[in-house]
């Protein structure tokens, strides 16, 4: 049995400089499973991290060309 099932990852292929985008990662877990982390990268540099068992749960790293609006992050399972 698989504990993590990926349904969808939405990432635009092309974005104009200065435009805003929304990144989405939709998945499900078996009832007994817990997610350790969700991470997003640009050019091999991590710019977003969600770790539900740590404080703070959401961390945004400075990466050139990326701005994360942490207040708009919607983490729901």
Automatic annotation (TrEMBL):
Pfam families listed in its UniProt record: V-set
Chain ranges of the Immunoglobulin V-set domain: 11-46
PANTHER family xrefs: BEAT PROTEIN, BEATEN PATH IIIA, ISOFORM D-RELATED
Designated name of the protein: Immunoglobulin V-set domain-containing protein
Annotated organism of origin: Allacma fusca
């Amino acid at each position: 049995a698989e504990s993590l099932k990926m349904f969808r990852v939405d990432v635009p292929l092309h974005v104009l400089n200065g435009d805003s985008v929304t990144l989405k990662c939709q998945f499900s877990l078996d009832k007994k499973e817990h997610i350790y982390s969700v991470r997003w990268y640009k050019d091999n540099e991590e710019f977003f991290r969600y770790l539900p068992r740590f404080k703070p749960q959401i961390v945004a790293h400075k990466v050139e060309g990326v701005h994360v609006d942490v207040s708009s992050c919607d983490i729901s399972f």
